[in-house]
Structures are given as structure tokens and as C-alpha cells.
Specification:
The complex is a heterotrimer of chains A (353), B (265) and C (289). With 353 residues, chain A is mostly helical. Chain A contains 15 helices and no strands. The termini of chain A are far apart. Chain C has one domain (4-282). Classes of the chains: A mainly alpha (353), B alpha/beta (265), C mainly alpha (289). Chain A: Keywords: Cell membrane, Membrane, Transmembrane, Transmembrane helix.
Chain lengths: 353, 265, 289
């Protein structure tokens, strides 16, 4: 790729990241789902529906990475918790969607809350390092805990979900797509609302200068723990959707590649923008599926290349998150600074005596 | 006349009158036996430090005397390795910085960066977050007080240094502290800004206690009623402001060989 | 229960721990000195293992060549990472970590493409394939050889780190970057050198561990996870800490795998969690109290 083109892409992405009108993006997403659903291609319906669980996982990662400022690979753990909980419920004969989603959300939140107790004490690359350990452990657990996960063979033949008792199960591809899209959109809208307004300001302040926030009486740890736990609920719902759209699960579905993909989606989509992260996930999955046709079995290669490209192309990368995350400011916002140095106060360095 | 102590003398008893100490035990802050070391380097070793309501208590001393460490220990940014701190009659030694802030201990920072991604007004709103329902002063009034009302909508990262210092002070004041810890508030300010700072600090309510770490002796002279001099983490001397400033040992500390030029800061 | 039954696993564990120490030392120094979190470290270890397994053909010269090639390849990989992350200076450590993560994914894919999905083991000279008897216990010669070499490498590493100018410079960079810049040495050069040495050590560790553990598609992930646990438990940047943690991890892992294979990973992670929760001294990257 020529330098010129690279810069063009970079600028386009930056503009997208900064302009990010969340509601417009959500509207576009809904419209896109509508267009896909209107087509007659059942294969397309199934393919699109199966992208949505990962899109929701990416939203969850974006909440933790972008809003709490904690780069994570570990959201795959609550995702797995939600998925296996749902699978077990369905296999045990509980088939109502509402029960599945609620239980999965709670399972995800509880697991993320427990992990958060340890993780939230750390920042930056150390957090990333520890979350990587969580991702590895999730894959190991999924492969080993045979009573729950079915081992490396996974669980198959999971009954389809029902919207309500008495209604027929959701098996038609179009119906599954519409259901999954509705759940994903609602979860994303919920997260956007919960992270809006004053909470957005609080989190932005905490990311910008934690010591100052503590000195003003803000319980920084509690804020970040709450965000991490809430993101766990979103990941859990994503896990439930994984079962509802695929109706089988293997440890690979909650493996390391999934964790990497979600983080990549967030890097590409802009950590602040939850719809951006979802769109990033869908874009990465689409590219992966296309590549898989003529270069089968090389998904990690593609993911890795995209990672490297994203880090080099996105100006400032994740570090300049704060520049992309600024809450909308009413007036006199000098445009040229929006892009300037990330955050001088971000404590990446160690504490020197 | 009090004796002049050797610079490396062991900590000398505090000269504070009993009345002040009693008031500090009641509604102020009392720190006893504070000691803090990084590895083998002891940066603070202070037998007692008291702040009574309404105090204007300056802590001075050359660089590395342990002034900022003392402030960080009082604010809770650093956990004391040994010693005890009571505030308002209760022990707060193991309380987190956020708890202390909500209990009324406000502070400013030596390197004020506030919240780079927020507007000036939002920074102050964050500072007064826990009083947002019933603020004594609205955020705009606080901004007016420190002279930043015209910059309310500007991103705080774009402010020049002097304004940033004022904003840091405004954020601290918005938290409605009863004890205000100021870490070199005049460092890097122009003369006009320093005058403004003195006006603001002069206008603080008389019940508010202020602990001031400062190199700028004019500011200390204008504000402080009581001075503690730290050297190598220990109290060299303390006493009423005019007496300490006239102390030749203190002058020697600042102007003598090896000492920093106080006025140069 | 006889103590003897645990003797062999403990010796195995120490050998494994020393290998892990060799693997993790570079990672922890790179993190301590330059803040570079190298997530491609496990891939370098796996690369060393693959190269050694492919090169060693049962003769002594080929074995020597295998070890040397693995270390050289590791150093080259470290050099590539140093060059790649140097391009991101001023962007912060997070971007560097993400970059190495991408490199790890690419490297892992290339390794499986070239060497296939099976677990490989090198062919060793016949002498090494046997066992020796010592103090009433039979012990495989290859493990003994690995143990001896690992001890030598760790000792050499200690000498280099503590007795040479380069080593002192590295330790000084971990302690105080600004000071190193102050004496006229560019800390970035130190970073690059550290990454290359870390790569060489990783390749060496990979080569030394293949006769015992083999090398396969899971090697990179496991090696990275264990190295990270060691780095975290060892105090992020401390080489003696990493050595102690590596020995502990080696013994726990070996005993755990023989005694309760299902729980072995959780034992380590549990230990790490306890370390993280009880440690009073703040770590780099930890939030202020």
C-alpha cells in the first residue's frame, strides 16, 4: 500500500472515529440489518446472524477498553460464561429467550465482577497482560470442564430458543437474524445510554487524571469495577446469542482467536464508539470469511496482519483514545487540539520514588 | 530565645501552643509519628504535625525536605508506612484518598493537569461532584472566583500553565474542603497571577484550615501564621510565622552554602 | 507416602523452572527497562523449538547447529520486534503491545504452516537418549543435559548482568531510565539490545525444551502464559524475582501435572492471583492507592 493511500485510510478512519454520532451509527446498523433481512438469501441471513454475537462481544470490549480505559482481552470469559450457561439451560429444557438472556447476563456480570476484583487494581499494559491470562484460562477451562462444556468436542444439537412459551422455536434463518439483531441493538443502545451524560464525563475524567479524581472524592476503583461488571453482562448476552444463532459451541468459539478478534474490532472501530466496535467486528469477520475462501485455515495470519496494520495506520492508536473519546463539548472547542497529544497524565510509567 | 538547632538534629519538639493542639484534636488534623522511606532513604520522619481549624500553616524547606511526601500522606495519595493521622477526631490513617476528600480534605497538585479531556467548567463540576445537589457556590461562581469564567467552555488541556494552576485550585475549592492542602500553588505563576492567588487565598473563610507547601517566601509571608520548617524529612523548627522567618538557621538553610535560593523559585 | 516418589518430579520441575527462567528473563527485562510488553515472546520460544526440532538429526554437530540456529533466529525475531516497536515511539506502550500481539498471531500462523500441526521432537544423539543411574534413581540423560545447560545459561546470564558494563547498563535502565540517558547512553539502544537478547534467550529456551516437551501449535500460547505469570509474580522487571518465580512455577507445574493434571493451570493462576492481591509494594501499572 502506498504511503499516500495509507494516510488517506488513516484520515478517513480518524474522521469516522471523531465524528462518531452514535445514534446515526445505530440507525445505519438497524437499516443494514433490515436490508439483509429483506433479501431472499437464507445463507446470507445465517451468516449475518452468526456475526452478531461477536459484534456484541466487541461492544463489551469497547466498554472496558474505551470507557474504562482498560485494554482487555479477557471479556471472552463472561462471553463463555453466558454461552455455556445458555447452552446448559437449553439442553435442560428451558427454552425461553428472556430466561436465557437474563441468566447469561447475570452469569457474565458475576464472572466479570469476580475477575474485576483482581484486574481493576492494574492499568495499561499490565491490565492487558493479566486479561490475556484470563483469555488463556477461559480456553483451558472450556476444553477441560467436560461436564459443562462437553470437552473439545463441544456441545451440539442445542434446542432452538423460543421467544415465549407456546411459540414455535426460532429456527428460520431470517427470524433468527431479526431476533439476534434486536437483542444486539437493544444491548448496545442500553450500554450507550448507561455510558452517556454525566457518567461519560466521570469516566473521561478518571481516564484523564485518576489522582485528581480521587482527590476530589471519586471512588475510581468502584466506577471502573462497575463498568467492567456491566460489560461482563453485555458479553454474557453475546454468549447467549452465540448459542441462539449457532446452536452448537466448541472451546474454539470462546478461544484466544475470539478474544483477539474482539480487541482488533475495537482498535479498528474506535474504542469509544460502541457501534463502531460492533461494525469493526462485522468488518473483520467479513474479511476473514472472504479470505478463508482462497486461503483456508489462515485466520490468525489475517488477524495478525490486520492488527499490525491497524496499529500503524490509526493515528495515535489506542493511546490517543482520549482524543477520540472526548465528550461532546458545546462551543469554542478548538478543532486542532482534538488530535493533539493523548493524555500526559496517563500513568503508563512506573512510580518513581 | 529559642535555640538554633543543628540542621541534622533529631526531630525537636513542636512549639505549638496547647490550645492549638487541643483544637486540632477536636476538629482539625493531627499526625503523629509519620515516617516514610523509599528503600533505605527516609524521606519523612515527623513526630507530630497539627492543623487546627482556621490555621494558615506553611511547610517550608529545601528540595527533598519531604514536604510533598507529607502532603501526599495527609491527603491519602500515599499510604503512611508508620504513624497515625486523625482528622475531626477519627483515625484516617488507612483511609483512601477519595474517602478523605469526601470527609473534607481537599488538595491541589504540584503539577496541575486536572482533566485534560474535559472543559474547564466540567472539571469544576467534577470537583464539586459530591456537593452537586447543594453547592455553597455553583461551579460558575467558583470559576468566577479564580478568574476563569471566560474560559469555562475551553478544553482544560489547552490552558496555559498559570490558568491550569488556578483551575486546579478551583476544582479543590469546589469540593468544599474544611482542610485545604496546597502543593506549591505559586510555582510558575506570573506576578499578577500570584497577586490574584493571594487575594483568593486571603478571602477563604476563616474556619477553613490551609496547609501550604511553598518555596515562594513572599506567598508564605503574606499568608502563613504558623510555619514548620522541614529538612531531610525532619522538623528543623516551627513557630509563629514572623519568628521563624527571622530565624537565622532558616535563612541559612535557604541562602547558605548548598541551600536553594528561595526567592528564585 | 515416600518422599522419593516426588524426587524425580522435583528435579524435573527445577529443570523446567530453569528453562522458564531463561525464557522469562528477557521478557521481564524488556518490560522493566523499556516498558515493552512483548506478546510475541511465546512465538519466539516456539520458533526456537521448531527450528531445533527440524535441524537436529541425531548427530552432535547437528544438535549444536540446532541450538545455535534457534538462538540466532530468536535474536533476529527480537531485532524485528525492536525495529517494529521503535517505529511507535511516542505512541505509548499499549500500541507496542498490540503490535507484538499482531506479530505473534502472524508468527504463530506461519510456524504452523511451515512445520505442520503435529507436535515435533528433535532426534538426539544416541548417548542422550538413554538413562543414567544416580543415587539409586534412573534419570534420562537428555533431561540431565538440559538441566546442566540451563544452570550454565542462568549462571552466565547472572555474570553478564552483574559483572559486565552492558549488564550494569541494562539494570540501570530498569532502575532509572533518565539516569542512563544522563550518562550519554540512548536508552532506546538499550531497549533494542534487550529485545534482541531476550529473543535469543527465548529461542534458546525453545530449543532446550523441545527434547522434553516437544513443540507444537500450543507451545507459543503456553510459553507466553507461563512467562507472563512468572513476570507478574516475579515483580515485573526483576530478574532475581523472575528466577525465583520460574523455579516455583516449574515445580508447581511439574508436580501439578503428575498429581492433578486438571487443576495444574488453576494452581498457577491461583498463586498469581494471591500474589497480586497481597502484594503491598505497588507494581508498575498499578493504580495509586
Amino acid at each position: 500500500m502506498s504511503r499516500q493511500a495509507g494516510r488517506g485510510v488513516a484520515e478517513a478512519l480518524t474522521t469516522w472515529h471523531r465524528s462518531g454520532s452514535t445514534w446515526v451509527a445505530l440507525g445505519v446498523a438497524a437499516a443494514a440489518v433490515g436490508v439483509v433481512a429483506l433479501s431472499a438469501d437464507a445463507y446470507l441471513h445465517a451468516t449475518a446472524a452468526r456475526m452478531l454475537p461477536l459484534a456484541l462481544l466487541a461492544v463489551s470490549v469497547a466498554v472496558v477498553t474505551g470507557h474504562a480505559g482498560l485494554p482487555t482481552l479477557g471479556q471472552v470469559a463472561p462471553y463463555a460464561a453466558g454461552a455455556y450457561t445458555t447452552a446448559r439451560l437449553a439442553l435442560a429444557g428451558v427454552e425461553q429467550a428472556a430466561v436465557h438472556l437474563l441468566t447469561a447476563a447475570v452469569a457474565g456480570a458475576v464472572l466479570a465482577g469476580l475477575l474485576g476484583v483482581v484486574l481493576i487494581r492494574y492499568r495499561g499494559t499490565v491490565f492487558l497482560m493479566l486479561s490475556l491470562g484470563v483469555a488463556e484460562l477461559t480456553a483451558i477451562t472450556a476444553a477441560q470442564w467436560r461436564q459443562v462444556s462437553g470437552g473439545t468436542d463441544g456441545l451440539a444439537g442445542i434446542p432452538a430458543v423460543r421467544l415465549a412459551p407456546g411459540l414455535p422455536p426460532l429456527v428460520a434463518d431470517r427470524a433468527v437474524l431479526l431476533y439476534a439483531a434486536a437483542v444486539a441493538l437493544c444491548a448496545t443502545v442500553g450500554a450507550v445510554i448507561l455510558l452517556g451524560g454525566e457518567r461519560r464525563m466521570l469516566l473521561s475524567a478518571v481516564r484523564g487524571n485518576e489522582a485528581r479524581a480521587r482527590a476530589s472524592g471519586h471512588r475510581v476503583t468502584a466506577y471502573l469495577w462497575a463498568v467492567h461488571t456491566g460489560a461482563g453482562a453485555i458479553a454474557g448476552i453475546g454468549g447467549a446469542l452465540l448459542i441462539h444463532t449457532h446452536r452448537w459451541i466448541t472451546p474454539a468459539d470462546v478461544g484466544f482467536a475470539t478474544a483477539a478478534l474482539a480487541l482488533l474490532a475495537v482498535v479498528i472501530g474506535g474504542a469509544a464508539s460502541l457501534p463502531g466496535a460492533a461494525a469493526g467486528a462485522i468488518a473483520v469477520l467479513a474479511v476473514r470469511d472472504v479470505i478463508a475462501v482462497w486461503l483456508p485455515g489462515h485466520a490468525p495470519l489475517l488477524l495478525g496482519a490486520l492488527f499490525v496494520a491497524a496499529v500503524y495506520l490509526l493515528p495515535g492508536g489506542l493511546t490517543a483514545l482520549s482524543a477520540r473519546l472526548r465528550p461532546p463539548t458545546p462551543s469554542r472547542r478548538p478543532n486542532h487540539v482534538a488530535h493533539a497529544s493523548g493524555s500526559p497524565a496517563r500513568p503508563t510509567a512506573r512510580s518513581t520514588p | 530565645m529559642r535555640t538554633v538547632h543543628r540542621i541534622d538534629a533529631d526531630g525537636v519538639p513542636s512549639q505549638r501552643p496547647h490550645g492549638d493542639v487541643d483544637r486540632a484534636h477536636g476538629n482539625g488534623l493531627v499526625a503523629t509519628g509519620l515516617r516514610h522511606a523509599y528503600g533505605y532513604l527516609t524521606v519523612l520522619d515527623l513526630d507530630t504535625f497539627t492543623v487546627a481549624p482556621g490555621d494558615r500553616h506553611a511547610v517550608i524547606g529545601p528540595n527533598g525536605a519531604g514536604k510533598s511526601t507529607l502532603l501526599n500522606l495527609l491527603a491519602g495519595a500515599t499510604r503512611a508506612q508508620s504513624g497515625a493521622i486523625t482528622y475531626n477526631g477519627q483515625t484516617i490513617t488507612r483511609r483512601q484518598a477519595a474517602w478523605r476528600a469526601r470527609a473534607g480534605i481537599g488538595r491541589t497538585f504540584q503539577h496541575p493537569s486536572v482533566y485534560p479531556d474535559l472543559t474547564v467548567l466540567d472539571c469544576v463540576r467534577m470537583g464539586g461532584w459530591h456537593h452537586r445537589r447543594h453547592p455553597e457556590r455553583t461551579p460558575l461562581e467558583v470559576l468566577d472566583l479564580v478568574g476563569l469564567i471566560d474560559h469555562a467552555d475551553v478544553l482544560s488541556a489547552t490552558l496555559p500553565h498559570g490558568h491550569r494552576r488556578m483551575l486546579d485550585l478551583a476544582v479543590a475549592l469546589a469540593g468544599q474542603p474544611r482542610l485545604l492542602l496546597l502543593d506549591e500553588p505559586a510555582a510558575g505563576l506570573t506576578d499578577a497571577e500570584t497577586t490574584r492567588l493571594l487575594d483568593i487565598l486571603d478571602g477563604l473563610p476563616s474556619w477553613m484550615a490551609v496547609v501550604l507547601v511553598e518555596h515562594h517566601m513572599d506567598v508564605v509571608a503574606a499568608l502563613a501564621t504558623w510555619i514548620t520548617v522541614l529538612h531531610h524529612g525532619r522538623r528543623l523548627t516551627d513557630g509563629p510565622a514572623d519568628r521563624v522567618r527571622a530565624d537565622p538557621a532558616v535563612a541559612a538553610l535557604y541562602l547558605g552554602p548548598g541551600g536553594d535560593d528561595a526567592a528564585g523559585q | 507416602m515416600r518422599v522419593d516418589a516426588y524426587l524425580i518430579p522435583v528435579v524435573d520441575g527445577v529443570a523446567y523452572g530453569l528453562l522458564l527462567a531463561i525464557a522469562a528473563a528477557g521478557l521481564t527485562v524488556a518490560f522493566g527497562a523499556g516498558g515493552v510488553l512483548n506478546l510475541a515472546h511465546g512465538t519466539l520460544i516456539a520458533a526456537g523449538g521448531y527450528i531445533a526440532a527440524a535441524t537436529s538429526s541425531g548427530t552432535w554437530p547437528s544438535l549444536a547447529a540446532a541450538v545455535a540456529l534457534a538462538a540466532i533466529a530468536g535474536a533476529a525475531g527480537g531485532g524485528v520486534l525492536a525495529a517494529a516497536t521503535a517505529g511507535l515511539r511516542g505512541r505509548g506502550h499499549l500500541d507496542q503491545a498490540l503490535l507484538t500481539f499482531g506479530v505473534a498471531l502472524i508468527g504463530g500462523d506461519l510456524l504452523t504452516t511451515v512445520y505442520g500441526p503435529d507436535t515435533l521432537r528433535p532426534r538426539l544423539p544416541a548417548t542422550l537418549e538413554g538413562t543414567v543411574e544416580a543415587a539409586g534413581h534412573r534419570y534420562p540423560v537428555d533431561r540431565l543435559a538440559v538441566l546442566v545447560i540451563a544452570v550454565l545459561v542462568v549462571a552466565a546470564g547472572y555474570v553478564v548482568l552483574h559483572r559486565t558494563r552492558a549488564g550494569r547498563l541494562i539494570r540501570a535502565t530498569v532502575d532509572d531510565r533518565a539516569m542512563v540517558a544522563g550518562i550519554g547512553v540512548n536508552p532506546r539502544l538499550v531497549d533494542a539490545a534487550v529485545l534482541m537478547c531476550a529473543g535469543a534467550l527465548a529461542g534458546l529456551a525453545g530449543a532446550l525444551s523441545t527434547p522434553i516437551l516437544g513443540v507444537g501449535p500450543g507451545t507459543a500460547d503456553t510459553a507466553l502464559l507461563l512467562s507472563l505469570i512468572i513476570v507478574v509474580c516475579g515483580g515485573l522487571g526483576s530478574v532475581p524475582g523472575a528466577l525465583a518465580a520460574a523455579l516455583a512455577v516449574g515445580v508447581v507445574q511439574t508436580l501439578g501435572v503428575t498429581s492433578f493434571p486438571q487443576l495444574a493451570p488453576y494452581l498457577l493462576v491461583g498463586a498469581m492471583t494471591v500474589v497480586l492481591l497481597v502484594r503491598r509494594r505497588s507494581l508498575p501499572g498499578q493504580a495509586a492507592a
